[in-house]
Design a protein that fits this description.
The structure holds two protein chains of two kinds.
Chain A: E1 15-21, E2 24-30, H1 36-43, E3 62-65, E4 68-71, E5 84-86, H2 99-107, H3 116-129, H4 135-141, H5 153-166, H6 175-179
Parallel strand pairs in A: 1-5
Antiparallel strand pairs in A: 1-2, 3-4, 3-5
Chain B: H1 24-28, E1 44-50, E2 56-62, H2 64-68, E3 72-77, E4 101-102, E5 108-114, H3 117-124, E6 128-133, H4 140-145, E7 160-168, H5 171-177, E8 180-188, E9 200-205, E10 211-215, H6 220-231, E11 238-242, H7 257-269, E12 273-276, H8 279-285, E13 292-300, E14 306-316, H9 324-330, E15 344-351, H10 367-383, H11 388-394, H12 414-424, H13 427-430, E16 438-448, E17 463-469, E18 475-479, H14 488-500, E19 507-511, H15 528-555, E20 562-565, E21 568-571, E22 574-580, H16 581-592, E23 596-601, E24 621-632, E25 639-649, H17 656-675, E26 681-682, E27 688-689, E28 707-713, H18 735-747, E29 750-751, E30 753-754, H19 758-769, E31 775-776, E32 790-792
Parallel strand pairs in B: 1-12, 7-32, 8-30, 10-11, 14-15, 18-19, 25-28, 29-31
Antiparallel strand pairs in B: 1-5, 2-4, 2-6, 3-5, 7-15, 8-13, 9-10, 9-12, 13-14, 16-24, 17-18, 17-23, 20-21, 21-22, 24-25, 26-27
The chains are: A alpha+beta, B alpha/beta.
């Protein structure tokens, strides 16, 4: 956002809060009506968090607050003072992709990529809690995240693959999910 | 160079392998910049005041208070953008902001640019618009019944935008040869793309008079043309950058009002101007599936072969033309590509209504007639007491042949596709044998791999590629294609890597930029892999030739013996004799100077020589067979689809994991249309969308998605790059009819209307229980005066592709369309 002249926008009075974002403490000032989604995207420049409806209907804007997935478009920024926020930008371990990110990349589980950040964070929250989820548990955990490209199949397979990797297994994706059935 | 296999002397190293997409990690780490992620200093934000009424004259617009509101920098109305535009030259009926009249709820009327979105939104509330309401046109029937008031002054007459009538061979003679003739009515409801990304655009205008627009578009070239026209700027001063598209499916093909508005606002204010639509506004943009009411009359013999088909479609086009003329053509093109239909008459009528404009959603104009055709095939099989899978397989179009409407198909492996899904689903053991409530259904389809004709007539390539070879052994590929998630950027990298024997990740891809990249016509009609792929092969082969000459001279090996693989150039007969790709580049640059090559692609000319013959022909056709399994609850009518089997004839996969993704995504979108998605409107007079939100517009979540067993089959098509055909649209076509046919197998009722919702299923089950016809679907078909057909003798009859100058065939004059079925 460009600088806003005060006389142009009398509501530009800002509130300041502290957050721990992706493991780093930040102090951020913003108009108090802003959602966490807006604070992340507009005031912290973390545009990896996407929006598809801003009404809590699509799941695109999912981030982790204290490790739990929430819809950042429905959370007020000011309500999160002192909390820990995890976004897609903080998911990789330095230059090393999180196994979920690697599995999504290998299987083409992100096509247009717009639901992908939210989907990855929702999947991470699942695996943090249930290390080897069943297909049904994966479906339930991701039911609030809409994807219009993939039909979800490659997403399910990627979560299963990443879960195996996280468990230390040298797993490979099933041949059928890459080449189809014989 | 079409169909060139650029890997002479060795097997494929990249093509056919499941490499990551070139943008995969960027998308999985949040680094990809979509249009709404772009921010510039001093950037203004735009909001649009949209019409609250469906059809009215604009009496007065007062923007004075908004202009004076603190923080507002500019206000635009229709008079500021008086030039009409539209996606197709034949129906340029749109304005960026309404002039004199509004035609739908949600049509933009006034635009405000302000220092932030809140200020712009508040300013909208200060604008006064006075409307003089007009009666509304709300449906196909109301458009036909009410020629007045006209939604548009253009079009044929009344509220009929367009009528098309073609007859390929004498269909009445075909019906006379038939053992049986069936007539069926079907309705396919409209639906929308629902991309996750809401449309967004950012415009900049420089003081030397150049406009740059960043926007999420599938068709930057056509958008560029529209901007030039409406804004009156020289084409060389307009720069369109297609940002990665967060979901397209056809919904980001047309030039949109907001793209023009922010461009104009940037020109006026001299500041960057952004807009990001709300989800509700995305529903107003629409351009989705046309609601289609269809009548299909088909003659057939006892063995299930077809003798003739006469198909008529009424399309509810909504408020504007858009790409609807093309949609209308596509309702009558591909029926002939699967099972031979020796004589084919097709009629399409597109009407204007006061609804959001329809347009090109995945499969543009073809899922509707394919639904009608495949459900009818199921009924024919039942009538003849044949197995519908065997009946289809017994009568298939021959590879590399011309069909009745002058389409030439290439490879066709539909027979193998049918075998695969029959075997996988245990069709023979289970079809017509499952307990009540459970069923299997089959459908097949054919689809083009790229439209043969561009949207505006010209003789230039459809796709261009420039290639720059770096001294560091990298290669940069420039192409005007638009990455919408299908993997078009990656396809370029894979193909160039295959030809030059390097790694796909040695390649940098620059796409979607009208200043930097040669024209590609855009991400529509399943054209991108085939057309950019062939252009890329040509450019890469030319680069390879330069490198080969230099290396051959140095190594004293004949050029024909040189092979490019593993980042090396070497003698095929003595692989140790060779050099690194980098050394080869240094040699070639020393010999020839800067290394850069180009490639172009234009589809082969079509043989049909009648008006409209450019729509339908394509360099290659993909084929799909699908079997759906359903669980129908006879108490509630709820249909669950636990599993589908799908076999897709892809020719040759450039990357199988991406093809799998397109097939699975197509099933998903087909499942949504089949079971729940509905672009529904309230009441008759208000013509207000019922569900313009993610929550109310029902689409499948993870919980509704079915399991899929996918088979990729096929033989390389001589027109495809490395033999590849399309995968992005064709696999959707059989989904809805396969499910409808499975419902019949499960509970014995025919649902001839999409979506196959519980209320319809239940009504049909109850009707059947009462001894009435177990069917839900249209029972009436409206009348419309039709012009005499363009009559074209078929290839089988010895036609030359030209129309015959003759009046309507006897008995054919006014298609006699009765109610009900034979």
């Amino acid at each position: 956002m460009g600088p806003v002249r005060k006389e142009d926008n009398p509501r530009a009075e800002k509130t300041s809060i502290r957050l721990r974002v992706n493991g780093e403490d930040v102090e951020v000032a913003f108009a108090p009506h802003k959602t966490l989604l807006e604070v992340l995207r507009e005031d912290l420049g973390l545009t990896g968090t996407k929006h598809g409806c801003e009404l809590g209907e699509c799941g695109c804007c999912t981030v982790l607050v204290d490790g739990r997935p929430i819809l950042s478009c429905l959370a007020l920024g000011v309500a999160l003072d002192g909390h820990e926020v995890g976004t897609i930008e903080g998911m990789a371990d330095g230059a090393k992709l999180h196994p979920l990110q690697a599995a999504f990349s290998d299987l083409g589980a992100g096509q247009c990529g717009y639901c992908t950040p939210g989907m990855l964070l929702a999947a991470k929250a699942l695996l943090d809690e249930v290390p080897r989820p069943s297909r049904e548990q994966i479906k339930a955990a991701l039911a609030g995240n809409i994807c219009r490209c993939t039909g979800y199949i490659k997403i399910f397979e990627a979560v299963e693959l990443a879960a195996a990797w996280l468990a230390g297994e040298p797993a490979e994706p099933p041949k059928e999910s890459i080449y189809g059935w014989e | 160079m079409a169909g060139n296999n650029g890997s002479r002397g060795r097997g494929l190293r990249v093509v056919g392998k499941p490499f990551r997409k070139v943008d995969a990690t960027s998308k999985c780490t949040g680094q990809t910049k979509y249009a709404d992620d772009i921010v510039f200093p001093r950037m203004l934000h735009t909001k649009l005041l949209r019409s609250t009424v469906p059809h009215a004259r604009i009496v007065r617009i007062d923007t004075t208070k908004a202009e004076e509101y603190p923080g507002v920098k500019a206000v635009l109305t229709g008079k500021d953008l008086p030039v009409a535009y539209g996606a197709m030259p034949v129906s340029e009926d749109e304005h960026a902001l309404a002039i004199d009249k509004v035609r739908m709820v949600g049509e933009p009327v006034v635009a405000v640019a302000a220092v932030d979105e809140d200020v712009a939104t508040e300013a909208l509330e200060l604008i006064e618009v006075e409307y003089d309401l007009l009666p509304t046109i709300s449906s196909i029937e109301s458009a036909l019944e009410h020629p007045e008031p006209r939604v548009h002054d253009h079009g044929e007459f009344g509220n009929i935008h367009r009528r098309q009538v073609y007859e390929f061979g004498n269909v009445e003679a075909g019906f006379a040869e038939a053992d049986f003739v069936r007539e069926d009515l079907t309705f396919y409801e409209g639906s929308t793309h629902l991309p996750l990304e809401q449309h967004a655009s950012v415009a900049q205008f420089s003081h030397d008079g150049k406009l740059t627009l960043y926007t999420c578009t599938q068709d930057l070239h056509y958008l560029h043309k529209a901007l030039v026209k409406v804004l009156g700027l020289p084409a060389s001063h307009v720069h369109v950058i297609a940002t990665p598209v967060g979901g397209g499916f056809g919904g980001k093909c047309d030039p949109f009002q907001h793209e023009i508005v922010v461009s104009k606002l940037a020109m006026i204010t001299g500041r960057p101007v952004k807009i990001c639509l709300t989800r509700e506004e995305v529903f107003y943009c629409h351009r989705g599936r046309h609601p289609a009411l269809m009548w299909t009359k088909t003659g057939f013999k006892k063995d299930g072969s077809l003798t003739a088909m006469h198909h008529r479609t009424f399309l509810d086009g909504g408020a504007y033309g858009g790409l609807g003329v093309a949609t209308a053509f596509y309702t009558g093109t591909f029926q002939t590509t699967t099972y031979p239909i020796p004589r084919f008459r097709v009629e399409a009528v597109r009407v204007f209504t006061n609804k959001a404009p329809c347009g090109p959603k995945r499969g543009n104009g073809t899922p509707q007639p394919r639904f009608a055709q495949e459900v009818q095939m199921d009924k024919i099989a039942e009538q003849l007491e044949l197995d519908p899978a065997e009946m289809r397989k017994r009568h298939l179009v021959s590879p590399y042949s011309y069909v009745a409407n002058w389409i030439r198909v290439g490879t066709i492996d539909l027979g193998t596709c049918i075998d695969k899904v029959v075997e996988g689903s245990q069709w023979k053991q289970r079809f017509r044998k499952l307990p009540y409530g459970k069923g299997l259904g089959m459908a097949c389809s054919g689809y083009m791999t790229g439209a043969q004709t561009p949207i505006y007539w010209n003789n230039m390539p459809h796709s261009g590629v420039q290639l720059k070879v770096d001294r560091g052994g990298g290669v940069t590929v420039f192409c005007g294609s638009a990455e919408i998630g299908q993997g078009s950027d990656s396809i370029l990298a894979y193909i160039v890597a295959e030809v030059l024997g390097i790694d796909p990740f040695d390649i940098r891809v620059v796409t979607g930029d009208t200043d930097l990249t040669p024209v590609d016509l855009g991400s529509y009609s399943s054209r991108v892999t085939l057309m950019t792929g062939n252009a890329a092969i040509q450019a890469a082969e030319r680069a390879k030739e330069l490198l080969s000459q230099a290396v051959a001279e140095k190594l004293e090996v004949p050029e024909a013996r040189l092979t490019f693989a593993d980042r090396r150039v070497f003698d095929l007969e003595n692989p140790d004799k060779g050099m690194s790709f980098i050394d080869a580049v240094w040699l070639a640059e020393s010999k020839f100077g800067t290394l850069s090559t180009v490639g172009s692609y234009k589809p082969p000319a079509a043989k049909g020589k009648f008006k409209g013959s450019g729509i339908g022909p394509s360099p290659a056709y993909s084929y799909t067979a699908a079997v759906a399994e359903v669980d129908v609850n006879p108490e509630t009518g709820i249909v669950a689809v636990p599993r589908m089997w799908i076999a897709h004839d892809i020719g040759q996969s450039i990357n199988p994991v991406l093809v799998m993704g397109q097939v699975e995504g197509s099933i998903y979108m087909g499942l949504g249309e089949a079971l729940m998605e509905e672009m529904a409107y309230r009441g008759n007079r208000n013509v207000l969308q019922k569900s313009p939100s993610f929550l109310e517009y029902k689409s499948p979540t993870t919980l509704e998605m079915c399991d899929i067993v996918t088979y990729l089959v096929g033989n390389a098509d001589s027109n495809g790059p490395f033999g590849a055909k399309e995968a992005g649209q064709g696999p959707q076509l059989p989904v809805a009819p396969a499910i409808a046919n499975a419902i019949y197998d499960a509970v014995g009722v025919r649902i001839d209307e999409v979506p196959l919702t519980p209320d319809k299923v239940l009504r049909a089950i109850r009707a059947k229980a009462k001894g009435q016809e177990g069917r839900y679907g249209p029972t009436k078909f409206p009348h419309c005066d039709m012009p005499a057909p363009i009559f074209v003798p078929t290839p089988a009859e010895g036609g030359d592709g030209k129309p015959l100058d003759r009046g309507p065939a006897p008995g054919n004059k006014q298609a006699n369309v009765p109610v009900g079925r034979t």
